[in-house]
Predict the 3D structure of the following.
Amino acid sequence: MSEEKPKNSSIENQNKSSKIRKSKMSKIKDQLRDPHFHYYAIWIVICILSIFFVSLFRIFPQPDFTLSIPEKKLSASRQSIIQSSITNKSINNYKHNVTLSADFLPPDLSIEFTAPFGKPIPTYATVMRIQVGPNASYGDHIIKVVGTGSDGKERYENITVSIVKKFSVDSTEIIK
């Protein structure tokens, strides 16, 4: 008789474990039926795909370009011309043409960019000429210099142009 009890207890244990498995399966089925579960599953898939694509772009970096202006603050007086250089550099073999322009120009101030224009392979420098007219307002003016690639990429640098009053030195004052 004592031998039969262990058999019965093992059968009971099997039944209990079977019931536990069935209860776990029914919980999983209930979760799958829950409409919010699908949103979680979609969210998890989107996260995994995002991680995949981010890592893919790190492995295969995209072509790009930089725009740099070493002198961020320039000073000029009315009726004068100042110059600064702009360097356009290719990153990861960027092969598109880049054109330069300026935004937020105050009245009576103009900017022109001299050649070369074109592809920044590997790099090129352009001269930016700023002409200040006779009626330009005094003070600091922030100008946005924009480089636009033919593929639509834009890079920009802000510069400050300070219009100051001309000062003259009287030579008789220096001698005294």
User: Anything to note?
Assistant: The chain has three helices and eight strands. The chain has two domains: 4-59, 64-164. The first helix runs from residue 4 to 33. The CA atoms of residues 121 and 149 lie 13 Å apart.
